[in-house]
C-alpha cells in the first residue's frame, strides 16, 4: 500500500537526516490523515490506494500552482522548494500513462459513452476518473478530453 511506503520512506529520511524530504512526507501523511477524517462522515473509497493517490495528486496540483505564482513573482527560491516537494511526492504515485496510452484510453471512453461534443465532457470525465484515476492526472485528462471532443 502507498500509505505504508510513505511511512517507511519517512523513517528512512529521518534516519538519514534528510530534513526536507522528512518534512514533505510528514505533510503528505497529515493530508492523508485529514482525508481519512473527512471520509468518516462521507463515503470512503473502497480502495485505500485510490484515496491516497487522490490526496497526493491534489498536493502536487497545489504545489505546481504555487511554484508558478512564485516564478511570476520572481521568487525562484520558493518555486524551487515547491518543485522539490513535487519530486518527493511523485515517487509514491502509480506510474502515469504516456501520451499515447492516455489518448487511446480517452478515445475508447468517448466511443463507449457516445460523446460527441463538449457538452458531454462531464460524463466522459466521470468515466475517465472511474477507470483511470490513479494512472491519469485529472488536469491532464481534462485537457485531453476537451481537445478530443472539440475536434
Would you mind describing this structure in some detail?
With 151 residues, the protein is an all-alpha fold. The protein has two domains: 2-90, Orthogonal Bundle (Hypothetical Protein Yqey, Chain: A, domain1); 99-150, Arc Repressor Mutant, subunit A, CATH 1.10.10. The protein contains seven helices and no strands. Helix 1 (2-16) runs antiparallel to helix 2 (19-41) and helix 6 (121-132) crosses helix 7 (138-150). The longest helix is centred in the middle third of the chain and has 25 residues, at 48-72. It is globular and about 55 Å long.
The ordered string of helix (H) and strand (E) elements is HHHHHHH
Number of domains: 2
Distance between the termini: 39 Å
What is the top-level CATH class of the largest domain? Answer: Mainly Alpha
Q: If you consult CATH, what is the topology of the largest domain?
A: Hypothetical Protein Yqey, Chain: A, domain1
Instruction: Sketch the major β-sheet.
Output: none
- Based on the coordinates given, report the CATH architecture of the largest domain: Orthogonal Bundle
The number of helical elements comes to 7
Low-confidence stretches: none
Helicity level, as a percent range?
Answer: over 70%
Please, what is the average pLDDT?
89
Tell me the radius of gyration: 18 Å
Q: What is the CATH superfamily label of the largest domain?
A: Uncharacterised protein YqeY/AIM41, N-terminal domain
Count of strand segments: 0
Structural category is mainly alpha
The global form is globular
% residues in beta strands: under 5%
Amino acid at each position: 500500500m502507498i500509505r505504508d511506503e510513505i511511512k517507511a520512506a519517512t523513517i528512512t529520511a529521518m534516519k538519514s537526516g534528510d530534513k526536507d524530504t522528512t518534512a514533505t512526507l510528514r505533510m503528505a501523511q497529515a493530508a492523508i490523515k485529514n482525508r481519512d477524517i473527512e471520509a468518516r462522515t462521507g463515503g470512503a473509497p473502497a480502495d485505500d490506494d485510490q484515496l491516497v493517490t487522490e490526496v497526493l495528486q491534489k498536493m502536487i496540483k497545489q504545489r505546481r500552482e504555487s511554484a508558478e505564482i512564485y516564478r511570476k513573482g520572481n521568487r525562484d527560491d520558493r518555486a524551487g522548494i515547491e518543485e522539490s516537494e513535487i519530486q518527493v511526492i511523485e515517487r509514491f504515485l502509480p506510474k502515469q500513462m504516456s501520451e499515447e496510452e492516455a489518448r487511446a484510453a480517452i478515445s475508447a471512453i468517448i466511443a463507449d459513452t457516445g460523446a460527441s461534443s463538449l457538452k458531454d465532457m462531464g460524463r466522459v470525465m466521470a468515466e475517465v476518473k472511474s477507470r483511470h484515476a490513479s494512472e491519469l492526472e485529472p488536469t491532464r485528462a481534462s485537457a485531453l478530453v476537451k481537445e478530443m471532443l472539440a475536434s
